[in-house]
Design goal:
The protein is α+β, with helices and mostly antiparallel strands. It has 4 domains: 106 residues, OB fold (Dihydrolipoamide Acetyltransferase, E2P), CATH 2.40.50; 35 residues; 36 residues, no CATH class; 212 residues, D-amino Acid Aminotransferase, Chain A, domain 1, CATH 3.30.470. The protein contains 11 helices and 23 strands. The strands form 7 sheets. Strands 15-14-13-16-17-18 form a 6-stranded antiparallel beta sheet. Strands 3-2-1-4-8 form a 5-stranded antiparallel beta sheet, with no helix packed on it. It has a 4-stranded antiparallel beta sheet with strand order 19-12-22-23. The chain is globular and about 80 Å long. The protein starts with 6 loop residues before the first strand and ends with a helix.
């Protein structure tokens, strides 16, 4: 799958009371259950649901944002009339927010997290807004992705993911090639023949032949449809969702000289970046440490392999790994444009000595409620003997249709780590 929708238009399924709660209730959107003000939404209402890991835009001008932060620090030490004056100045600043509907999230830095309400004993994942927050020119429809329309971005916790510089690699041109290009590049036949002989230049764009970016949808968005299709049939493989960085590497075999020879390209990718040259990032460092280029070429396969990159300083190294590891969760055949099945992925890892993500179950069926699915996602992992940690969640993959996947993020993990 590609980048998933972080904000989408949906209809409220139902709203229901929570014991011991006087001012709030639970609102169900798809199979997400979210705390909302009592009476704010009712069944059938069209709403905007925003998922965990979203950052909403700050409607203040950057200069005003900086001024507000200075005042906030000053207020911590101020007292009496000085404190009153500072608070008034802060109120005047936030009154200029062009997105006042999000202002209440300023103290949370506009980030949407899972929240546990101890007073009422429930976990709320995500947030629901009335449809009125959408720009006036949008005609809302159920399922509409409004992430970009609202200026919402995904939380990025990895420094290596922030660098979005696009790279390119050009094959050097000799004098004869330059002459021929000048004379004949305008002709499609010439361009086709040249590509067959020399191959095309590489760029840092996500290419059409590559596997999709790794970001499965949450179970709460898919549960009703998946259960309707498959019920409790044991047609799923379940693996642990490792807390790390998504990292892919490929051995791309490109026919040249009309199939008489091949060019073999190697590069690594983060979740969203195609890093074709060694940029000094941790992705490339680990690729060198694990000798991935040599090992992938030795398979002789035209493949792109994706795994979870963990260890070192990545996500605080909760597993206490002494070295960087790469736990494979997907093998993609570039030639056929198909993903390996769970069994094929395990066979690949065994044959070519790659680590893979921990297997929770090789075959099982879905539970009959989404809450039971969420409860099942809670658990532990032990990547280092004797070091048991809370599991981030699980990923379910259909045994016969490997492109059908979804993730379940452990509610206990989200609360434990403030996500």
């Amino acid at each position: 799958m590609g980048d998933r929708a972080l904000a989408h238009v949906e209809r409220v399924v139902t709203s229901y009371e929570v014991e011991k709660a006087d001012r709030v209730e639970m609102t169900q959107v798809l199979d997400f259950h979210v705390v909302a003000k009592k009476g704010e939404f009712k069944a059938g209402d069209l709403v905007v649901y925003i998922e965990v890991d979203s950052i909403l835009p700050d409607g203040l001008d950057p200069a005003l944002q900086a001024q507000y932060e200075v005042l906030k620090k000053t207020a911590k030490k101020a007292t009496g009339e000085d404190l009153i004056r500072i608070q008034k100045e802060m109120e005047e600043i936030v009154a200029k927010n062009t997105k006042p509907e999000f202002e209440f999230l300023r103290q949370k830095k506009f980030r949407i997290k899972a929240l546990k309400y101890n007073s009422i004993g429930v976990i709320s994942q995500g947030i629901v807004f009335p449809i009125s927050i959408l720009p006036a020119d949008i005609v809302p429809e159920v399922g509409m992705d409004v992430t970009q329309a609202l200026g919402i971005v995904k939380v990025v916790e990895d420094e290596d993911e922030v660098n979005t510089e696009e790279q390119s690699v050009s094959n050097k041109k000799g004098a004869i090639e330059k002459f021929l290009d000048h004379r004949f590049m305008r002709y499609s036949a010439y361009r086709t023949i040249k590509a067959q002989i020399k191959g095309t230049d590489r760029t840092g764009k996500w290419e059409p032949w590559m596997a999709s970016k790794t970001d499965e949808e949450n179970i709460q968005k898919l549960y009703s449809r998946m259960f309707e299709l498959y019920g409790e049939e044991a047609v799923w493989a379940v693996t642990s969702k490792i807390e790390g960085q998504s990292m892919s590497a490929y051995n791309h075999i490109i026919p040249m000289w009309f199939g008489l020879t091949n060019r073999k390209d190697f590069a690594v990718c983060s979740r969203s970046r195609h890093i074709i040259r060694d940029d000094g990032s941790r992705f490339w460092q680990t690729a060198r440490e694990l000798d991935l280029e040599k090992r992938l070429r030795a398979t002789g396969l035209n493949i792109m392999v994706s795994g979870e990159h963990a260890g070192g300083k990545i996500q605080g190294n909760i597993y206490k790994l002494l070295e960087h590891h790469w736990y494979v969760f997907r093998v993609f055949d570039i030639t056929t444009q198909k993903r390996y099945t769970h069994e094929q992925m395990l066979e690949f890892c065994h044959k070519y000595e790659f680590e893979h993500v921990p297997v929770v179950s090789h075959q099982m069926g879905m539970f009959d409620t989404v809450q039971k699915m969420l409860d099942f996602s809670n658990g532990t992992d032990e990547l280092v003997k004797g070091v048991t940690v809370a599991r981030e969640g699980v990923v379910w993959q259909h045994l016969h249709n490997p492109e059908v996947t979804f993730k379940i993020r452990s509610p206990e993990y989200l609360i434990l780590h403030g996500k």
